[in-house]
Amino acid sequence: MKELKYEFYIGGTPEQVWASLVSPEYVQQIYYGSIIRSSFKEGELLEYIGPGAEGKETVHVYGTLLEYAPLKALRFTHKVGPSYLKGQENYESRISWLLEPVGGCTKLSLIHDEWHPDDPSYEPSDSAWWHILSNIKTLIETGHTLDFGSNK
Fold first, then answer.
1. Residues 41/94, Cβ–Cβ less than 8 Å
2. At the top level of its lineage, which domain of life is listed (predicted)?
């Protein structure tokens, strides 16, 4: 499978964009009530936890933190939470968030790669990333997230 790669230019500072990736108050708005739980130490666990099939503490995504460079890069392995598997194998991929100041805005790149050819989460990820990236951009630029209706 090919990598999923997205680049957005956001009318905000690298500090604001970085906060949207790691600060609970931003992450919760962008990821539909989930927060990121991590020590932010490379080699340790990173989880996105929130309301879902297993209650308020449903693990939606988890992995190992590979790189934590504030205002520049957040990289981690990616596996879907157990409630999404339904008897399927849990494949690992990699997510890289990269920030770069460009003039008075910030370029945010997301690369989701290292996919296993049989990973069933590829298509849902491609669809979901557009919502998440749009929410990041909109939240930073307007102070609000988007209303995608009852689907999310």
1. no
2. Bacteria
